Each structure stands twice: as C-alpha cells, then as structure tokens.
Amino acid sequence: MPTILVIEDDASIRTGVLDALAAAGYETLNAANGRDGLETGLRATYDLMLLDLVLPYVEGFEILKAVREQRPVTPIIILSAMGAENDRVKGLNLGADDYMVKPFGARELLARVNAVLRRSPERPQEVSVVKFPGGEADMERCEVRHADGSREELSQREISVLRYLASNAGRAISREEILTRVWRITMSAGATRTIDMHIANLRAKLRDDPTDPRVILTVRGKGYMYKSLPA
Fold first, then answer.
1. Among 1, 161, 194, 228, whose Cα sits 20 to 30 Å from the Cα of 155?
2. What residue spans define the domains of the chain?
C-alpha cells in the first residue's frame, strides 16, 4: 500500500487522520510542525503528502513550494481551516493536487486520497542519482560529477526535467507532459522553447553531443527520451 506523510500540528486532528489512513491499510509518516515536516517532506520516501498550512516554524505554503521544486510529481493534498477562495487558489497554483477545508470527515478524506492516487498512475518513483556514460547526476547535491573529477552545477528546473526523464527511461516524453506534469504550467510556444533550452543545457552538462546524443535522445514528433544504461 502507498505511504502517506501527514504534516499537521493539531494533535487530535493528526491522530484522527493517521488512524483513518491506517484503518484503510495505508502506511503513514507524520510531522507535528513545519520544520520537521519540511525535512521529512524533502528526505523521506512516500507516495502522497497531506499538508496543513498554519504550522509552527515553517508555514505550509513554504513547504509546498520547497517540495514542489525538489519533488515535482509527488501528490499533495492541503488540509486547512483557511477556506477562503484566495487561499484555495494560491494552494492549487503552487502545485497542490487537492484542497480540503477543515473540518472534514474520514470518509471524505479517504475518498480524496484515493482519487488523487488514482489519477496519478504514471507518477514515477523519485530518483536521487542518475547515472550516464562518464559520470552521474546527484539530485540532492544539485550537481553533475564526471569521471575526470570535474563538476557542473544543476538548476532546480534542470533537476526536475532530468529526474522525470530518467524516472521514465525508455519512454518518449512530450514537451507538453513536462510542462503540465513536472513544471505545472500551461502549454505555449515560449514554454516549449524553454524546454528545448533546458534540454540543451542538460546535454552540455552531461557532455552529450547534441548532434549525436546518446543520453537524452530526441524522438521526432514526440519529444525527448532518456536512454537507460545497459544492465
């Protein structure tokens, strides 16, 4: 069963949510404040996050933004007493998959969790290190390391694209899929050019010859594909 991370400072609500999830068969992780929630959200392995917004030390919106940069395809549902339209819109625009206003019942919570997990069947497993001929890309350290000892820094957007391509190695990924599922922005001519620019930058940092790429391939009429290393 999937593992769900619950970040909620109200002990009674947190316990109720954890009990409901456990009764439904889910594995759970939890954090009682924003500082611990941010650390767990960035480091732990889980399939979906339930996130309160009003938290001690680090607020929920800050956690949402940080997790979206590092883990762009992990499902996140906001649980909050902040039910104003502006709050809901802000949460969804920052990348939340759903927004539940407190108070809510256990049946509704489980229905929302199931729905988000069902409509995310192709979310790839997060990867922390991507190997390629002559080196590796370390997502945690935001760098490419070559066999000769040289290093190249990776931007967060380069990491998100490379992570997604590598998680789907052997499958052609369209520019539209990268925009909507990874960066969560609307398809446009300017946006597709930005994808191509990031691919060009990645190829340069991976030393992947753009005239004859061996790592990030161009699939005519479809997009880009990360080529798996031989077993």
1. 228
2. 3-118, 129-226
DSSP state of 173: B
Handedness of CA 122, 195, 159, 64 (dihedral sign): negative
Question: Can you give the pTM of this predicted structure?
Answer: 0.56
Q: Sign of torsion, CA 8 9 13 15?
A: positive
Do 84 and 75 meet the contact criterion of CB atoms below 8 Å apart?
no
Q: Pairing relation of β-strands 135-138 and 129-132?
A: antiparallel
- C-alpha–C-alpha distance, residues 96 and 68, integer Å: 9
Asked if 178 and 216 count as a contact pair (C-beta separation under 8 A), the reply is no
Whole-angstrom distance, CA of residue 141 vs CA of residue 158:
13
List, for residues 13-50, the tens digit of each pLDDT value. Answer: 999 999 999 999 999 999 999 999 999 998 888 889 99
**Average pLDDT over all residues of the chain:** 87
Residues in the chain: 231
The CATH number that domain 129-226 falls under is: 1.10.10.10
Within 10 Å of residue 85's Cβ, how many Cβ atoms? 7
CATH of 3-118, one of 3.40.50.1780, 3.40.50.300, 3.20.80.10, 3.40.50.2300: 3.40.50.2300
